[in-house]
Amino acid sequence: MTNEDSAVSQAYRAVYLTAEDLRVAASILYNAYHDDPFFIDSLYAGDMSMYEQKLRGAIREELNELWQQEQALIGLFDADRMVGVACIVTQQVPLGESRYWHWRLKMLISTGWQSTQALIKKESSLLEHLPSPHCGILQFIAVSPTEQGKGLGAQLVQAALSWCDEQPELDGIGVFASDQNHALLFSQHGFTLLEQLSIGKVEGELLFYRGHENE
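The chain above was modelled as a monomer; its predicted structure follows.
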């Protein structure tokens, strides 16, 4: 770790989100994923305002579901101000085609039938290629737009990996990256390529981090 990295680590803290944090987390994720190729492919149907409404709904419902299922929601804070968020979901809860009916219903109302099916198919595709049923998925990871360029993305990734290493029942975590810069960041933190995947019209890489317990 460089002196600069050490300074960043000391200035920011990674902690589990509380219910009161979910609204701010949703806002950070919305801004970060607004131009994400997968969400555009899945949610956009020619009307930008409708797309933005669907995206807000999808992120809100997924965050609420992960919170209800006691999944790992990690916030990066500068004092009391949230500047980043990472969300990990494990197969201890039903994912993909096994998603709970209440999640499907809420997502259907928020995004529509085709968009909900696209979200389910993406998850199913990732699960199919992960090495075991004891793997998590890094569902969301984002830094606030005003905090870019400070090395916070790397610190968020490291926080997620530290959490993974502390879960003895978890073989590791996977992430789908359609952006080469994002893929490079994950690779620099110990993720390796599992598969080149096409999800809908989006090409990307499924990267995997094997937890220290399983090395």
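DSSP finds eight helices and seven strands in the chain.
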